[in-house]
Design brief:
Length: 174
């Protein structure tokens, strides 16, 4: 339905303008969100993320995936929401902004808690811990580690919970 923007470079050659296309797709997604057409908005945000990625703008690709995850959450499509959150975190991490990636994964973990999917919640919190560990933000790792341990216990994954608690103990003995 939507065609990417392109720029004429000569009489018969056209070069796509992915930056502009991504911005326009983002605007269209915002319009669909206002109209509460979440399924269409989800598709448009996916196109926007693809356009930003082709323009090598990973931060805005992550932002588009994050907005798409919000649309999926409104549609109550947990699987799609988690997929988009993971993609958003990956793009943010590739851009060099692990703090943004951690924020997205925390949102996904909280949503998983609400849905009762404690395994996924624990995995999301552990990803947050890994991101903070990469940045050497020891203080910010405390809460996600506690929540990851709690989620693992609720999921009855006691082996993983012990691993998380041992990691937390090792962290605080430093």
């Amino acid at each position: 339905p939507f065609k990417p923007y392109s720029k004429k470079t000569s009489m018969f050659k056209w070069k796509p303008e992915w930056e502009e296309a991504g911005q326009e797709y983002d605007k269209a997604g915002a319009c669909y969100k206002l109209c509460k057409e979440y399924a269409k908005g989800l598709n448009v945000y996916e196109l926007a993320a693809d356009a930003h990625e082709k323009a090598t703008d990973m931060y805005h690709a992550g932002s588009s995936f994050e907005k798409g995850a919000e649309m999926a959450q409104e549609m109550k499509d947990g699987k799609k929401m988690f997929e988009f959150c993971k993609l958003a975190a990956d793009k943010y991490e590739r851009n060099g902004t692990p703090a943004a990636a951690a924020t997205v994964m925390e949102k996904a973990a909280k949503a998983a808690d609400k849905l009762g999917d404690f395994r996924r919640s624990g995995a999301c919190y552990l990803k947050v811990v890994d991101l903070y560990e990469t940045e050497e933000k020891i203080r910010q790792m405390r809460v996600p580690l506690e929540k990851a341990a709690g989620a693992c216990i609720k999921a009855q994954d006691y082996v993983q919970a012990m691993t998380v608690l041992e990691k937390q103990f090792a962290l605080f003995t430093k």
